[in-house]
Write a structure and sequence with these properties.
The protein is an alpha+beta fold. The chain is built from 24 helices and 5 strands. It is globular and about 85 Å long.
Amino acid sequence: MSWLDQLAENTEELRRAGRLQQNGRSAEALPILDKVLAVAADPTTRAYALVQRFGALINLGRIAELATAMTIAENAVREIPDPYLRGQMHAFAALGAHLERNLDRGVTHLVQASRALAAVQENDSETAWGWHDLAMAYSYLGFHGHALTAIEQARQVGAAVGLAPEIFAAPGIRLRNAVSLDHQGDTDGCLRVLRDIDAELTRYVAIGADHMRPGSRAAYGYSLARRAALGEDTEANAAEWLTGGGDSVRTRDLQHLGHVCLTMAAGRPGQALSMLDSVPVSAEILGAAEPARLRSICHAAAGDHAAAHAADRYAFRLAAQRIDRLRDGYLDGVAARLDAQETQRDPGRYGDETLTDPLTGLPNRRQLERYVATMLQRGDRAAIGVCDLIGFTEVNARHGRHCGDLVLQRIAGVLNRVMRRGDFVARFAGDEFVVVLPGAGTAQAAEVSRRITAATTAENWQILVPGTPISLAAGWSEVGANGRTLSAALAAAAANRLPTRPLSEMT
C-alpha cells in the first residue's frame, strides 16, 4: 500500500500532482495542489499538499514565496506525527534554504530530514522519493558523499516496491560533484566522473531503459557538453540530451550552459563568451563558480591566457567561499558539542530538564532564580545584565519561527563563548537573556558587555537570516548591593538597556 492510500480525501489528485512534479512539470502540478487545499479538510491531506506545494515552488524558483510556504507547511506537519511527512518537508526546506543561500539553516534541515526518513517503518514509493529529494538537497548544499548514500537508499527502497532503477539515476548528483572538483583545480577528477556519467547513459540507452525521468535529460546533456568543452569526445550526442526536461529553473540553466559548452567545443569561444553574458543563470544550480570556470575555458581556447588565469582565480575564490562557510559551521558545531558536554559534567549548575530551556540548552528563569537566591544567601553580590535581541520580530515575520529558533540558539552560543569562567547565562523569556557576573564591578561588566557586542556584530547574520540584521540591547545593574533583590536588579537593568550601549555605570 502506498503512503498516499491512507489519506482521507483527494488521493488521486495528489497522486497526479506528484507524477507531474516527478516529470518536471511543476507549473501544472501547482494549480492541482491549490485546488486540493481549497477543499480538503483532513489535516494529513492538507499537510501533504502543503509540503508538495512548497516543493513545486522550489522547482519553479519562486524564491520570494518560499519563506511563507515553508512556515505554513512546517506548521501543518508539526501536527501530524508521521516521519515520512517530516522527512519530506525538511528535505524540501533544505533545498529552499540553499536557494536563499542560507547554509546553516540548510544543514539543520538535512540532519532533520535524514533522521525522520530513517525512522520510517514501512517503506513505499513516497519514501523512496523522500530519499531522492534528500539526496538532491545534500548535493546542492555540497555534501556529495552523503548525496550518493541517500540516492542509493532511494534506489533500494524503490526497487523493493517495483520502481525501475533508472528512475533514481540522478545524474545531477555526480555532475555537481564533477564540476565541484573542477572548481577546486582537479580537472582530471572532474573528467573521470563525467566519463562515468557518459558510460552510465550509454548502458541505459543500450538496455532500452524507458523510465528515465525527463529532469535527468538536462543533467546528462550538460555532463556530455561539459566533457566536450574540456576537449574530450563523448559517446552520446549532447545536443540531443539538452532538449526537453521540464519547466524547472535547473533545466533551463543546464540547457543554456550546455549550449555554451558545445559552442566552445565547436571552436567558437568568442560566441560562447557572448552567450554567457546574454543570459544570467542561478548560482545555486552548479555553484557560483561554474560560469567563471566556463569563462576561463573560453579565454584559454581563444589564446587569452591572462584572462583565463584571472577567471580561474575568481572561480576558485567563489568555490572557496562555500568551504569557508562550512568551516564556520564546523566550528559552531564543535562549540555546541562542548557546551553540551559542560552541561552534562556540571549538573549542579544546570539542573534537570525542568531547569533548562529546551531550545538553547541554557538555564531557564527558574534556574536563574535558584542560582541568584543561593548567591544572596552567601552574602555575595554580582553584576546583572539583561540582553534583548533587536530584529528578532522581523526574523520571525520574514523567515519564520524556525529561523527565529536558529537565531536564539546562535545568540546563546555567542553569550556562552564570551563569558568568564564562573559566569552564569540564562534564557529568561522569549528573546531576552540574562547574564550574571559574580563579584563583578563596573569595569568587569563593561569588558563583558564589550565582548558581547563584538561577538554579536561578528556573526554572519546575512547568511543565517538574509536581509534582517541582528543586534543586542543590553542594560546592567547589580544584585546584592544595598539589599537589592533579583527582581529589582532586573527591572533596573531593563530600564537602562540601549543598543550596544557603552557601559559607564550600573544603576
